[in-house]
Design a protein that fits this description.
It is built from 14 helices and 9 strands. By secondary structure, the chain is of the alpha/beta class. The strands form 3 sheets. It has a 5-stranded parallel β-sheet, covered by helices on one side. The protein is globular. Bound molecules: adenosine-5'-diphosphate (ADP) and magnesium ion.
Length: about 350
């Protein structure tokens, strides 16, 4: 089992099951009450006026349902969706060709929109604002711009790093949705739904166990469910019982608190190498041999939500709860010294 259970990205074989498990309507989409309430109103209003939906920015850590929500929106608006991502739009011409290829009312979903190159972003501005793109024809002194009109459409941008989105781009989104980590009750619903779809015999008593160990993230909940299904198949009679779930969770390295290996390592390193902090994120990431982006996008948001670490102007530090979790409180100070 080398694929990390909390890994931010969906693996290739996972993408297959993911699409099978994706809710397709707003009613099926579990949790995120605030985002759903807003969307429900804006979608109904746009449809009532026979207009396109305003551009939507969806932000939140990986695996919380941003891509799913984009598909749900297109479905609820009865439109086509065209899917691309920031890094895929290398040249402005790529952006221009996608935009001109959209039909009336279509949704353009741009994943990882914070990684959109500046030049492509500039093509997007007039498209979002004036339904037009400005083509430059010719070169040098003879060059002139020609304005090309586009069909009305909706841009949905998804990002794990809203802070990296430029102000002019952010301003062009009329609807801003923030997805938060799911409480265990909602994850329980996600797990029960997925078990039904995947035909996993799951003991209802085991559900809370899975729900509290999924880092507040549906993608991880589904991943754990599939892993436990494997364990049940090989080591048991196929049933995911409480006992089997406990053994399985130990096997895949998820502890009681729902922290996984990299979470624990983060807390341990912050405790032992930096005396609980503050420490800069780059220094920390280097000490963990992880990408700064992974630490910032995946590890820290959850540890922060759990109240184990906090961001200060001087860097990251353990909260009292985090010090306890890292085992610092029992120590007399000498144990973790440099
Ligand atoms: N609100 C939800 N209700 C049920 N399942 C969800 C929900 N949000 C996400 N999921 C599940 O989690 C998986 C990952 O969601 P995804 O939209 O790909 O996350 P993101 O794009 O934010 O990384 C989906 O395949 C889906 O099965
Ligand atoms: Mg996604």
């Amino acid at each position: 089992m080398d694929e990390r259970v909390i890994s931010a990205q969906a693996s290739a074989d996972e993408r297959q099951t993911e699409s099978a498990l994706r809710p397709t309507t707003l009613a099926e989409y579990i949790g995120q009450a605030q985002a759903k309430a807003q969307l429900g109103i804006f979608i109904a209003a746009a449809k009532g006026r026979a207009e396109t939906l305003d551009h939507v920015l969806v932000q939140g850590p990986p695996g919380l349902g941003k891509t799913t929500l984009a598909y749900v929106i297109a479905r609820e608006m009865n439109t086509n969706i065209r899917v691309t991502s920031g890094p895929a739009l290398e040249r402005p011409a790529d952006m221009a060709s996608i935009l001109t290829g959209l039909g009336a009312g279509d949704v353009l979903f741009i994943d990882e929109i914070h990684r959109l190159p500046q030049a492509a972003e500039e093509v997007l501005y007039p498209a979002m604002e004036d339904k037009a793109i400005d083509l430059v024809i010719g070169k040098g002194v003879g060059a002139r711009t020609h304005r090309l009109h586009l069909e009305p459409m909706t841009v949905i941008g998804a990002t794990t790093r809203p802070g990296l989105i430029s102000a002019p781009l952010r301003d062009r989104f009329g609807i801003n949705l923030r997805l938060d980590f799911y409480p265990p009750e909602e994850l329980a619903q996600v797990i029960e739904r997925s078990a039904r779809i995947l035909n996993v015999p799951l003991d209802p008593q085991a559900v809370p166990l899975l729900a509290t160990r999924s880092r507040g993230t549906p993608r991880i909940a589904n991943r754990i469910l599939r892993r436990l299904r494997d364990v049940a198949q090989v080591e048991g009679d196929g049933q995911v019982t409480v006992d089997l779930a406990e053994r399985g969770l130990r096997l895949i390295g998820i502890d009681q608190g729902g922290l996984d290996e990299i979470d624990r390592r983060y807390l341990r390193v912050l405790a032992s190498k930096f005396r609980g902090g503050p420490a800069g994120v780059e220094t920390l990431a280097a000490a963990l041999s992880e990408e700064t982006e992974t630490v910032e996008d995946v590890v820290e948001p959850y540890l922060m939500q759990r109240g184990l670490i906090e961001r200060t102007p001087r860097g990251r530090q353990l909260t009292p709860a985090g010090r306890l979790e890292a085992g610092m409180e029992q120590s007399t100070g000498g144990l973790f010294g440099p």
